[in-house]
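Hi there, hope your week has been kind to you so far. Please have a think about how the structure follows from the sequence. I've dropped the whole record in just underneath, so have a look:

_____
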Amino acid sequence: MAASKKNELKKALRSIRFTVWIYFAIFIVSILIMIWISFTFSLEATYRTEKTNDISSIASYILTKWSEEGFTTDSLDRIAHDNDTCVLIQDRYGLSVYSYDVMGKNCLLHSGASLAKYRKLAYDSSTGIYYAEIKNSRFENNTLMFAMLLGTKDDPKGYLLLNTSLEPLESTVDILRVQMLQVSLAMLALAFGISIFLSSLVATPIVRITRSAEKLAQGDYNVKFNGRGYTETEQLAETLNYASNEITKIDTMRRDLMANISHDLRTPLTMVKAYAEMIRDLSGDDPVKRDEHLGIIIEESDRLAALVNDIMDLTKLENGSTELHKEPFCVGSRLKEIMTRYKLLSERDGYKFYVSTNEEAWGEADLIKFDQIIYNLVNNAVNYSGEEKTVYVTEVCTPKKIQISVTDTGDGISKELMPLIFDRYYRAEKHKREVIGTGLGLSIVKQIFILHGFKFGVKSEEGIGSTFWFEMDRIEKPKDINM
């Protein structure tokens, strides 16, 4: 029981819902931590830096306007007032040229203290500028003192002095800290709520698909996958629905295959048993009857062996364990040689075979597999040739390709059944039992086509007949072969 609960906990911790939730939560907490670090450690430093930059900008602006003689007393007053800064402009001898006091004589510039040292510090600096934090003893607060040399060291025109208070931040920081804490708690609560909602939203279509997949695994091939919500899950659901349909087709084909194979195995086995019993009980002492019955047993045994061999060939072709041994050959000559083996069928059963070839065209293939293709296609044409009993084998060549087609004169194939003809053990419902073959021929042919990389197809018109074709590359005749 404890192990089961432990496994369930591990699965829960690895789930998408938990993963999305925990990552979102970590993201929000990280942001809040960064804000608090920035607030706690850099607020005061940032304030002083910004204050220094502001007063430097004010000094540069005043200096520019002063040199352009574009200042009036009113404009200087406005700048000092708007920036809460005391301004004092002195000539080279320390006499006041302009003064503005925003602190009521409580700033360092207007309190009566000597400013000579600040002028000297500005004069002695390499840039002509001096600024520093200086404590105002009257109010026990820090102020920013700024002094700038007007003119050059060789020809000083005067000095610009600025003084502004650096507000105490402790009380402000305490207020902001309380507000930040309140905002942080609210953000955490909101973030955890949103993360739970988002994790559920992301996981829901995947959970639906998983449940449907479990039903499919249990054999419910009619299950439908619903991935509504996201493009990726919808694509996954479409793929799984397609896979489910294909599995349904394969399962149906498997059942049909087993039924057909069972039927084809049962019939010759029944015949073998029946004629063996007849030999035992009736014809054992009659040489003529005995030979006849033994001949039927041999034929049915051959049929069983052919069926088993075809099943084995198809299995090897489908699982990729068959190796090709390609070699060059004259396609036309090979076709004529193969078709001579149907002479007995022609003489005995009245079938007519017409062969049109080009004995100058050469191709490359596994000869055993090539023969197997032609045998199966011709056998299929024989079985479906109808009352005319006519089969056409045609070779058409171009400079780069060789197309071989086998045509029968039967009833043809309907358009809706055309995609099924290469399926394992497919047989037209109206067609009688095969004259030749086991019913696996076209499936074997298809796998050999794929293995060789041949293009192939079928053309058919109901009431006229069907043409099965395939196309192979044409090659030059090898120079070391004499024919």
